[in-house]
C-alpha cells in the first residue's frame, strides 16, 4: 500500500514550517498588545522587530513546557511607512463594516503582538520586554489580558473554538500557500464588550438560538432548529465550488469585574482577509441585509484592526522580502 501524501498536500503542509507560530493549541492565557509606530521612528521599529524572536526565546526557553509564543502582525499604514519595496497583495486598512448601532469599528493599530502561553506570567513578562525594547519607537494603544475560562467558554457561557479547522484544513485556511509571501497570514482582531445584564436576563433556550449550539453540551443545533441569524449560522461561508471557507480563531475572554467591563477578544487568522471581512458583513449587515447576527444584540465591537502576519524569517531578515525604510 502506498501511504505517501500526494505532493500538493505535502507541499501545502510544509508551509507551516516557514510561518510564525499561528497554529497553536487553544491559549490558556494571552496578552493582545497593540501599538502604533511613532512618526520618524519607523526604522527603529523595523530594527526592534528583528529582536522579537530572541526576546521570545529568552522568556520562553526557561519554562518550555508553558508554550510561550508571540505572533507579530503589521498594519497597512505602518507597512507603507516601514517598507518601500514589495507589499502583500491583500494588505489594506481594516474596513468599517455595518451601520447604525451595529458597526465593526476601525481603530488605531500599527503592530500586533499576539502573545500566548499556558501561564499568564510568561505572557506578561514578554510584553514588558517587548515594550522596553521598542521604547519610544511605539505608543501602546491597547493591552488586553485574556484568560481561559472554565472549559474553553466565553463570558456568555458558551464553548468557543469548537469548529476551528484542524490539521491540513487549519494550515490551508491560515497560510498563503505559495509566492513570495508563502507562509504569511492575515489576522483580524476585534475587542467586543458584552452586555451581561441583558444576556443573563435571556433564557438559556433563547441564548442557544442566538449562538446556534447547546450551552451545556456544546452540540450544534440541528437543521431546521438553528437560525440563519444565529452566530454559527451567520458565519457559514462557502466558495463558488461549494467548499467551506474557514478562519483559525483563538478568542479569549477578558474582564474587569468591578468596572463591569468584560467581553471577548476576537482574533481570526486567514490566508485572505476577505474571508474574515465577508463573515463580518454577514454578521453586521446580514444575509439577506437586516438578518444580522443576534450575538450583536449583546456584544459591541470597540476595536478593529487588520494586520499582515509575515513569514517567520521576515522579522529578522526583512530585506530578503522587501526594502526596509531607512
Ligand atoms: C462577540 C464575539 C464573539 C464570540 C463571543 C464568539 C463566540 C463563538 C462561539 C461560542 C462559537 C461556537 C463554537 C465554535 O465553533 O467556536 C463561535 C463560532 C464561530 N465564530 Fe464566533 N464569536 C465571536 C465573534 C466572531 C467573529 C467576529 C467572527 C468572524 C469574523 C466569528 C467567527 C466564527 C466562526 C467562523 C465560527 C464557527 C462557525 C461554524 O460552526 O462553522 N466569531 N463563535
Largest sheet: 10 strands, antiparallel
Helix content: 25-40%
What is the helix tally? Answer: 11
Number of strands: 12
Strand content: 15-25%
- Rg, Å, rounded: 20 Å
Helix/strand order, N-terminal first: HEHHEHEEEHEHEHHHEEEHEEH
Oligomer: single chain
Shape: globular
Mean pLDDT: 97
Distance between the termini: 56 Å
Structural class: alpha+beta
Q: What compounds sit in this structure?
A: protoporphyrin IX containing FE
Could you list the spans in which at least 5 consecutive residues all have pLDDT below 50? none
What is the total number of structural domains? 1
Task: Please supply descriptive tags for the structure shown above.
single chain; alpha+beta; 10-stranded antiparallel sheet; two-stranded antiparallel sheet; 11 helices
Write the layout of secondary structure elements.
Blueprint: H1 7-18, E1 29-37, H2 42-49, H3 52-60, E2 69-75, H4 76-82, E3 97-99, E4 102-104, E5 111-117, H5 120-134, E6 138-147, H6 167-174, E7 185-194, H7 196-200, H8 204-211, H9 231-234, E8 248-249, E9 252-256, E10 261-270, H10 273-284, E11 299-301, E12 305-309, H11 312-316
Antiparallel strand pairs: 1-5, 1-6, 2-5, 2-12, 3-4, 7-10, 7-11, 7-12, 8-10, 9-10
Helix pairs in contact: 3-5
This protein binds protoporphyrin IX containing FE (HEM).
Residues 154, 156, 158-163, 190, 192, 211, 213, 231-232, 235-236, 247, 264, 266, 268, 276, 279-280, 295, 299 line the site of protoporphyrin IX containing FE.
Pfam family, one: Dyp_perox_N
Domain Dyp-type peroxidase C-terminal: 151-313
Keywords: Iron, Metal-binding, Oxidoreductase, Peroxidase
Amino acid at each position: 500500500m502506498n501511504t505517501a501524501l500526494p505532493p500538493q498536500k505535502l507541499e501545502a503542509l510544509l508551509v507551516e514550517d516557514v510561518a510564525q507560530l499561528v497554529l497553536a493549541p487553544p491559549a490558556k492565557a494571552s496578552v493582545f498588545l497593540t501599538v502604533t509606530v511613532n512618526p520618524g521612528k519607523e526604522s527603529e521599529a523595523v530594527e526592534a522587530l528583528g529582536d522579537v524572536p530572541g526576546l521570545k526565546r529568552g522568556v520562553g526557553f526557561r519554562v518550555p513546557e508553558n508554550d510561550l509564543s508571540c505572533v507579530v502582525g503589521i498594519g497597512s499604514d505602518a507597512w507603507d511607512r516601514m517598507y518601500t519595496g514589495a507589499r502583500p497583495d491583500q494588505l489594506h486598512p481594516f474596513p468599517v463594516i455595518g451601520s447604525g448601532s451595529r458597526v465593526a469599528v476601525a481603530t488605531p493599530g500599527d503592530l500586533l503582538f499576539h502573545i500566548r502561553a499556558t501561564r499568564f506570567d510568561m505572557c506578561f513578562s514578554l510584553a514588558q520586554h517587548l515594550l522596553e525594547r521598542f521604547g519610544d519607537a511605539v505608543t501602546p494603544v491597547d493591552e488586553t489580558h485574556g484568560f481561559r475560562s472554565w472549559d474553553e467558554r466565553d463570558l456568555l457561557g458558551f464553548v468557543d473554538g469548537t469548529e476551528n479547522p484542524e490539521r491540513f484544513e487549519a494550515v490551508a485556511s491560515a497560510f498563503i500557500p505559495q509566492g513570495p509571501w508563502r507562509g504569511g497570514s492575515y489576522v483580524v482582531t476585534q475587542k467586543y464588550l458584552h452586555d451581561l445584564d441583558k444576556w443573563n436576563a435571556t433564557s438559556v433556550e433563547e441564548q442557544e438560538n442566538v449562538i446556534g449550539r447547546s450551552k451545556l453540551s456544546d452540540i450544534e443545533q440541528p437543521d431546521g432548529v438553528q437560525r440563519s441569524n444565529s452566530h454559527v449560522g451567520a458565519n457559514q461561508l462557502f466558495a463558488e465550488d461549494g467548499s467551506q471557507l474557514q478562519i483559525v480563531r483563538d478568542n479569549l475572554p477578558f474582564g474587569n469585574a468591578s468596572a463591569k467591563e468584560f467581553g471577548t477578544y476576537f482574533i481570526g487568522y486567514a490566508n485572505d482577509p476577505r474571508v474574515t471581512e465577508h463573515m463580518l458583513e454577514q454578521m453586521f449587515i446580514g444575509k439577506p441585509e437586516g438578518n444580522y447576527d443576534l450575538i450583536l444584540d449583546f456584544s459591541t465591537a470597540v476595536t478593529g484592526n487588520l494586520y499582515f502576519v509575515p513569514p517567520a524569517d521576515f522579522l529578522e531578515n526583512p530585506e530578503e522580502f522587501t526594502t526596509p525604510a531607512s
